Every structure is written in C-alpha cells, then in structure tokens.
C-alpha cells in the first residue's frame, strides 16, 4: 500500500495556493517553493518525496506561476504515474500531465508520425519474446525458456544503452556485464530480431523512445513545437534513468533549465535494465547553479527499522554509497526487527505464515502485510503455507486494476444504473449509495461471502469487493453522494490508474516492492547465494544486491522480520549461511564500527524442534528425493501414480465447502486441495497419522481433526454412521 492510499481516501481540495503548503516540513516546503531553475531533490526512503514534488507542482499551478498544460511530470511505472495524477487532482491541479517516459513518447510519436513519415505509426509489439524466439530459430540457436527470457532482456538493455547489434559484442567485452550466452550469438539474434520487426512493420517499446529521439534530433520544427508546449519538467526516480531516457529528456528540455529531478542513489536496483544513478550524481556538475534539497526525515518507519536501514548502507561501498542519506525517523519507537533461523525452507514458510496469522489476529489488516523474496520462484512455498494457515494473499504483478475484465464490466453496470436512476428496479430496496453498489455488483458475481477456493473466481470476487469498499469509503467522505458521483469518481481514478486496494497479504519480489510500503514486512530467504544472488560477482553487482535488501527493509513501517533457512528441504545438510549484509547488524554477528553492536533482540530458531523429518523427504512411490512443497505434502512425485480414494476425496471436498461457508472463509483456509489429496491418499485413522500430513497443524487438528477422521472412517462428521459404508467398517 502506498502513502497515498494509506492516508485519507478522499481529502478536501486545498482552498488556496498557500493552503497547498500546509503540513509540509521545512525541507518539503523548500522543494515546493523552488519553482525556478534546475532543482535536485535527494530523497531518502519514506521521506515524502512524492508529497513534496506533487505539492510543488500544485503550488505553482494554484499560484499562477505554472500553467497546468505546460508541465510534464515523468516517472517509471504506470502505477507511480497514476498515483501522481491522483494526488495532483486532490490538490486542485488535475490538468497536469503525469506519465511514464514511454507513455509520453508514444503520444508524441503517434501525433507527429503522419507528418514526419506518413501513414499510421507501425503496430506496437506487446510482447517481444515470441519474435526473439523466431529470430533465434532463424539463427539456428536453440534457447530454453529461461535463456529466451535472458536474451530478450539483453536486447532490451542494448537498446536503452543505444547499442546497435553490430557493436553489442564489443560493448559487452568492455563492460562488466555477464552475457547469458556467447555475445556474438546474441548479436546475431538481436540483428535478426530487428530485421523481423522491419519486415512486419512493428515496433517495440524501446523503439518508441528511439524513434521519438530520432524525430526530435532531425526535425527542429517538431522539437520546437514540443518545447513550446512543455516548459517545465519533473522527473521522479531519477536514479533509474537509462542513457536513452536521459537523451530524450535533454531533447525535451533544449537549452532551458526548468527541470526538477528527484531520486536516491541508494535505491538504484535496476541496472540490469540500463538504469544508472550517474545522471543523478552528476546533476550538480551539469547544473552548477542547481538548488539542492535533501529529504532525510523518515515518516514511514520506526527508529528501529531506520537504524537497521542506516546500518546496511553504512557498510556500502562505491560512488552511490558516497552519496547515501542518513535517515532520521519521525515516528514513535516500535518493536525491534526480528531475526529467525529455520531448519529448512518449508519450516521457514510455515513459521512465517504462523506469525502473519498472529499479526492479523492482533489487528493488523492482511492488506498491510507483505512477504518479500529475491526471486519469484520462491513464492510457491509461501502461497502453500499461507493457504494452509487460512490467510488470504495476492501475488504482486497482476494486470492493472481498472483493466481487469470484471472491473470494466462492473463500471458499465454501475454507469447504466446511474443513468436509469429511480427507474431501475434493482435499486428499489437500496437506501444508500453502498447498498446501491452492492445491488448492482451482485448481478456481476459479488456476494456477501467470498467464494470457496482460489484462482480466477476468487480474484474476480476480490476485485468487486474492492469496488464495494471504495463505495463505502466514498459515501462516508461525501455525504449525500449519488451513484452518478461515484461513477464520475471511478472514471477519474481509471484515467489516473488510482486503484483501490485489494485485501490480502502481498507476496512480491524485492524488485516489485519498490515504491510500496506496509505495516509489517517479512524478508525471507536471506541466505548467501540468494542475497546476494549467486550470479552477482563484481563489486558493483554485490553493492546493488545490498541496495535491494535496503529497499526491502525500508518498505516496513512498524513490524520487520528477517529470516533464512539452513537447508532447502527437511533433513537436508545445514550448509547455508545467512547473508553477509546482516553481519554486524543481526544479534550475535559481531559489532559494526560506528554503530556499536547489532540491533536489539535475538535470533530465534524457528521450526527446527517441531519438524519430524531428519532425513530427506522421499517419494513413497519411486523413492526419489522430494524438494517441491506440493510434492512433499503428498509424499510423492507429482507425476507418480496416485492411490487416492476418489470417493473419499469428494466427501472431504463437500465437507470442506460446508465448513468454509459456515466460517465465512475461502475453502483453502480450511484445507488446500493438496492437503485433501494427501488425506484421501493416506486415509489416516488416528490423530497422530493425521498430524503427520503437511498442512494439518495443531490448530487445524484441534478444530477439524475429529470430522476428518470420521469421514476417513466412513462415518458422518460428529460420529454418526455413514450409511452404505457401515458394513465395510
């Protein structure tokens, strides 16, 4: 959840320009008032940089110093651009353009292409992977799925660094970059990919920037036209600009200096895409008269979290580290970060799920909790553990909220009901706005209780439930608001990509978590080889991994837990070591110069005592060692034959559906499908046998054990005979 959605959902628009400045701290206010000449804002994590720059733009507009249509604010993600547009609208500066580099360039390219080249702009290639695969095949190079992804990323890097195919091998040889395959081969695939695009009259996202740069360089009249429209530029996350994006920005600016950049070199984590902090670090060299403001007051995290974050950066090396910002927490003290060592990865996932369940029971909303990991492949075991613990979750990286089919359909239905007004019989018994919305969305699949199970049906319900919650918040904030008012609000939010929140614990990679924040964060899998990742070998790559962990730490507002597992699977050799980045910071790892001993608290040993398996988990069919969470739950390989009692499995599913309905929870919160399969295969007859099945913890054994054992014995839950099965018992 971002700071914008964490604050009041529907704030009042400030009455005047001066009112826009209310509530800003001295440094933020200095940013807001610096409306002339080059401005560089060095903003640490949680210091309110988006607040500062949006108030700066809004103050300039409301004071009549800036014309809304003359300002172009650019950032790197559609979500960030949407948040910026939403905040500017709330501040009374809704006419300002806030876009990504690609979005702004694409609009200009579409407008000027007919004039410069003639005809329509070539079709934009949504996904380049398929074309890269074809290019590789034509070059007689075989690529597996992972190699294909890596080569595609390498082509993207070459383009944003303005490296042409013929130069690629030489450029890689001069750099510290590790190519995923022979550079000569990649150069050939890159050249063929470009040829295929030309043959089919398509362009990719990097071409959007390259072609816009080419037009602005070659056509001074068009460059002048764009410069006459946009006189003032703001660039967020400036540490992430690539050489190509910087070239485009220079062309937009021309010989003017009305530029404000915002960034933090310590949050540079995308160098693999061509991003470099050099432009931020060199800003004062290029603009000697620049106003420089540092934001170091951290409003997000407690002093305990900030202490750990500062400690991480105190060990950093390199140019970015020389410009690190020492954060100063503005919050009341909170709990010390927790450090937990587990015997193996399933124990780590189960322990994390238990702690999350305890936090939710203590009042922390599920949507305010995140589990962050280094690579997406780590998510499966946490999905399974959260499902077993009855905790709802969402994976970060799904399509944008307002682009989901169910949200578009809901918008159409709400718009139709608003037009019909009192003539819509559906609204006859709806007395207020929330009940009207609930009535309309009930025709699209929304129900008062969530559906059983997970997957697409559950995702659809969560989207509609988010709209219901938004309507309830809107009604509280806008007394007397009508359905038409809500539809107008949804239209404005869709245009700004200012989405409501979907409830559930967030599972995300550290890269995907950039720009987000939660009350409670669990950083998991913090072992050497994963953090830093095993292929990070150079000093620069290692330092970027440290910054990635720093980004993860600074996502937490109050609760922060860091954990690692000594082996991958139960009974495995305990050969792993916790990440070097925590040396001197975690308890018992030695003192860190300048900070004294590591943070408070101690390291817990989680899960080792309760796990039963001392040796590797073996498939009970073929004897192979099992490593995947789902296979270990079944105690067999996924593709080994199953001896499951199908009739028992169906009875268990029916019983689970009844339990879920009674509890008002998704079915997977009772038992997951994999757990039910394991029960139906092993048919336990005692508490001990049932407890030996992964996914049946003490809590679930106490709550559901008697029913499950009764069903397995052919009896009805509650101890009554099961009819036809009685004579077989």
Average pLDDT rating: 83
Largest pleated sheet: 7 strands, parallel
Widest β-sheet, arrangement of strands: 13-14-12-15-16-11-17
Which parts are unreliable, with pLDDT below 50 for 5 consecutive residues or more? 1-7, 593-599, 608-614, 720-729
What share of the residues does DSSP label as strand, in percent? 5-15%
How far do the termini sit from each other? Answer: 54 Å
Write down the Rg.
Answer: 28 Å
Q: Provide the structure class.
A: alpha/beta
Shape: globular
Q: How is this fold's topology laid out?
A:
Elements lengths: L2 H4 L10 H4 L5 H8 L5 E5 L5 H14 L8 E5 L2 H13 L6 E4 H16 L6 E2 L4 H10 L6 H16 L7 H7 L8 H18 L1 E2 L1 H14 L1 H10 L2 E4 L7 H11 L5 E5 L14 H4 L1 H4 L4 E5 L1 E2 L4 H12 L4 H4 L5 E2 L8 E7 H17 L7 E5 L5 H10 L4 E3 L9 H16 L12 H9 L14 H22 L5 H14 L8 E5 L8 E6 L15 H15 L2 E12 L35 E4 L22 H6 L11 H18 L9 H10 L4 H5 L6 H15 L2 E2 L3 E2 L8
Parallel strand pairs: 1-7, 1-8, 2-3, 2-6, 4-5, 6-7, 9-10, 11-16, 11-17, 12-14, 12-15, 13-14, 15-16
Antiparallel strand pairs: 18-19
Helix pairs in contact: 3-4, 5-23, 6-11, 7-10, 9-10, 11-12, 11-13, 16-24, 18-19, 20-23, 21-22, 26-27
General description of the model:
The chain is of the alpha/beta class and 729 residues long. It has a seven-stranded parallel beta sheet, covered by helices on one side. A six-stranded parallel beta sheet has the order 3-2-6-7-1-8, with helices on both faces. A two-stranded parallel sheet has the order 4-5. It is built from 29 helices and 19 strands. Helix 16 runs antiparallel to helix 24 (539-553), helix 20 packs antiparallel against helix 23 (483-496) and helix 26 (646-663) crosses helix 27 (673-682). The two termini are 54 Å apart.
């Amino acid at each position: 959840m971002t700071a914008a959605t964490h604050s009041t959902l529907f704030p009042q628009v400030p009455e005047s320009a001066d009112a826009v400045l209310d509530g800003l701290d001295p440094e933020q206010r200095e940013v807001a008032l610096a409306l002339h000449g080059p401005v560089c804002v060095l903003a640490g994590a949680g210091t309110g940089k988006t607040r500062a720059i949006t108030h700066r733009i809004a103050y300039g507009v409301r004071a009549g110093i800036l014309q809304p249509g003359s300002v172009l604010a650019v950032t790197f993600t559609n979500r960030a651009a949407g948040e910026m547009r939403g905040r500017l609208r709330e501040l009374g500066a809704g006419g300002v353009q806030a876009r990504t580099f690609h979005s702004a360039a694409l609009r200009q390219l579409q407008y000027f292409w007919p004039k410069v080249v003639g005809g329509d702009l070539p079709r934009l290639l949504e996904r380049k992977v398929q074309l890269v695969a074809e290019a590789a095949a034509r070059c007689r190079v075989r690529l597996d799925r992972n190699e294909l992804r890596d080569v595609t990323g390498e082509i993207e890097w070459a383009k944003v660094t303005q490296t042409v195919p013929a130069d690629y091998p030489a450029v890689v040889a001069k750099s510290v970059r590790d190519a995923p395959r022979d550079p000569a081969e990649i150069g050939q695939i890159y050249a063929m990919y470009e040829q295929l695009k030309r043959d089919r009259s398509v362009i990719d996202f990097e071409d959007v920037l390259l072609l816009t740069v080419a037009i602005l360089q070659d056509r001074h009249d068009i460059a002048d036209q764009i410069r006459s429209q946009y006189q003032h530029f703001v660039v967020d996350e400036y540490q992430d600009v690539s050489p190509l994006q910087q070239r485009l920005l220079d062309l937009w600016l021309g010989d003017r200096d009305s530029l404000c950049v915002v960034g933090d070199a310590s949050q540079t984590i995308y160098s693999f895409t061509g991003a470099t902090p050099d432009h931020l670090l060199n800003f004062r060299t290029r603009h000697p008269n620049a106003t420089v403001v540092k934001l170091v007051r951290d409003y997000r995290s407690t002093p305990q979290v900030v202490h750990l974050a500062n400690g991480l950066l105190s060990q950093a090396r390199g140019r970015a580290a020389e410009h690190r910002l020492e954060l100063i927490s503005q919050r009341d003290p909170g709990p010390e970060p927790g450090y937990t060592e587990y015997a193996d990865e399933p124990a780590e996932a189960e322990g994390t799920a238990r702690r999350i369940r305890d936090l939710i029971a203590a009042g922390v909303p599920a949507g305010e909790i995140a589990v962050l990991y280094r690579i997406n492949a780590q998510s499966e075991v946490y999905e399974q553990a959260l499902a077993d613990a009855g905790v709802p979750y969402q994976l970060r990286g799904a399509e944008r909220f307002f682009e989901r089919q169910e949200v578009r359909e809901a918008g159409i239905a709400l718009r139709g009901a608003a037009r019909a007004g009192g003539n819509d019989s559906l609204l006859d018994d709806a007395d207020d706005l929330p009940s009207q919305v609930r009535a309309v969305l009930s025709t699209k699949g929304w129900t008062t209780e969530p559906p059983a199970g997970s997957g697409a049906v559950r995702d659809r319900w969560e989207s509609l439930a988010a709209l219901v919650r938004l309507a309830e918040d809107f009604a509280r904030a806008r007394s007397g608001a009508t359905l038409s008012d809500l539809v107008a609000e949804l239209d404005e939010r869709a245009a700004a990509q200012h989405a409501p929140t979907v409830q559930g614990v967030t599972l995300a990679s550290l890269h995907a978590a950039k720009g987000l924040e939660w009350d409670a964060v669990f950083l998991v899998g913090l072992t050497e080889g994963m953090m830093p990742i095993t292929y990070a070998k150079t000093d620069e790559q290692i330092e970027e991994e440290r910054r990635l962990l720093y980004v993860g730490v600074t996502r937490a507002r109050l609760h922060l837990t860091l954990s690692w597992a000594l082996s991958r699977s139960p009974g495995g050799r305990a050969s792993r070591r916790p990440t070097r980045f925590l040396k001197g910071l975690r308890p018992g790892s030695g003192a860190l110069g300048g900070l004294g001993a590591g943070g408070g608290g101690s390291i817990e040993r989680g899960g080792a005592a309760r796990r039963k398996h001392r040796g590797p988990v073996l498939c009970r069919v073929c004897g192979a060692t099992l490593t995947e969470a789902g296979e270990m739950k079944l105690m067999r390989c996924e593709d080994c034959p199953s001896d499951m009692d199908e009739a028992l499995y169906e009875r268990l599913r029916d019983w689970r559906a009844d339990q879920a309905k009674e509890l008002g929870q998704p079915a997977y919160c009772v038992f997951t499908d994999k757990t039910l399969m394991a029960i139906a295969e092993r048919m336990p007859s005692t508490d001990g046998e049932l407890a030996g099945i992964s996914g049946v913890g003490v809590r679930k054994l106490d709550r559901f054990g008697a029913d499950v054992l009764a069903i397995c014995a052919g009896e009805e839950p509650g101890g009554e005979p099961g009819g036809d099965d009685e004579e077989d018992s």
